[in-house]
Amino acid sequence: MASSRPLRADAARNREKLLAAATQLFGERGLDVPMEHIARRAEVSIGTLYAHFPTKEAFFGAIFPERLAALDALGEKARADPDPWHGFVGYLEGLFAQHAKDRGLNDILARQVPQASAVIESCHRGAGHVAELIDRAKLSGQLRADFTMTDMTTLTWAMSQVIRESVDSAPDEWRRFLAFYVAGLRAENGP
Amino acid sequence: MASSRPLRADAARNREKLLAAATQLFGERGLDVPMEHIARRAEVSIGTLYAHFPTKEAFFGAIFPERLAALDALGEKARADPDPWHGFVGYLEGLFAQHAKDRGLNDILARQVPQASAVIESCHRGAGHVAELIDRAKLSGQLRADFTMTDMTTLTWAMSQVIRESVDSAPDEWRRFLAFYVAGLRAENGP
DNA sequence: GATTAAATCGAGGGTGCCCTCGATTTACGG
DNA sequence: CCGTAAATCGAGGGCACCCTCGATTTAATC
User: Fold this and answer.
1) DSSP calls for A134-159
2) CA-based nearest distance B137→chain A, Å
3) Residue closest to C17, CA→C1'?
4) How many CA atoms lie within 13 A of A38 on its CB side?
């Protein structure tokens, strides 16, 4: 299902400028940036913006699947780690480091995403990887047996808020918080 | 500094109705409820609302110090616990149970409160109690030595988000999350 | 270069929230 | 009862955001 006609040259250029502007602004200020700001930074009128991306979800769908794919790579690396616990914890740190770098990513994982279909799909795939990491770490007897995927979701909520509140004033605070939490996940503390 | 003149009867009645409406709506929907909604629920015009409470902070100042005082009682109880660790953990559970019951309380502790002076003051007093609980639990050798008041603030951020996201769909999820975190705070896991 | 469909522009309509203020109503003391 | 200060009312101004649409400009094609 290739686009029916190729885009005109100026249109293609503007589309890229819009995408770049949106990517940057989402990253800096989160998903609530007004459409007008995106248009202004792209040096394009608001009408043109809507011609390309009729809704904010259209932006999300164009931007975030790529970002989430980057997390897949992280998942691969973690799964390749010979020590399942080390791999699991490394994944958490890498995941939340991305949150800290990209306010928009943080937002999109924190709120329950409406139905940005492409985004949802990427999340499901990511969740699969995480489930595997969890299982491996449990089987190796290092992660407490009652830790579930649901707990992972909850942790994501928690971390997203911690990062939002602290990343500017105390950029390492979230690592500290995560370390406390992770300490409680060792099997010795389990049931 | 008693009010210069006593309120007229209708004014006093309306003030109470406004306070009741605001308390209820803040509790249900958080601090972002529009002023218009409060006025409507109080069966009072928007103009009257502003006559009594010229700003949202005025509402906060009238409502939350009382709520936060309730937390003081909790602090007292915790400090009276013969087991410092048990007291500390009990305080956390009680504190966040309040968050779960009162969306407005959750909001006001999650965001850095602008400068609702009366609210700020109550928070400082509460923080004092918490610091004491932390010290006691450290001295008894049960709480890891590197846990600080700052970590307590961070935990509050985390819990506020977890509660917001889960309290309706999974009312016990926050307890579970807290339990994992608290497990990591035992001195055995410390430095 | 003329033709034409594609793309751009930005004023402006709609919504929801904040808050004000002059006109009106109401409580209360004499 | 009456006079008056106190209290109430709600239309409406201001602002920020969403999005649309008819007029205009521009790129591509012959």
Assistant:
1) HHHHHHTT-B-TT--HHHHHHHHHHH
2) 16
3) B34
4) 31
| CB of A8 nearer than 7 A to strand C | yes
Paired tokens of B100? 């779960």
Can you give the pLDDT of all 191 residues of chain B as single tens digits? 445 678 899 999 999 999 999 999 999 999 999 999 999 999 999 999 999 999 999 999 999 999 999 899 999 999 999 999 999 999 999 999 999 999 999 999 888 665 566 788 888 888 999 999 999 999 999 999 999 999 999 999 999 999 999 999 999 999 999 999 999 999 999 88
CATH classification for the domain delimited by A57-185, as one of 1.10.357, 1.10.3470, 3.40.50, 3.10.20: 1.10.357
| CATH topology assigned to domain A1-54 | Arc Repressor Mutant, subunit A (1.10.10)
Q: Can you give the pTM of this predicted structure?
A: 0.94
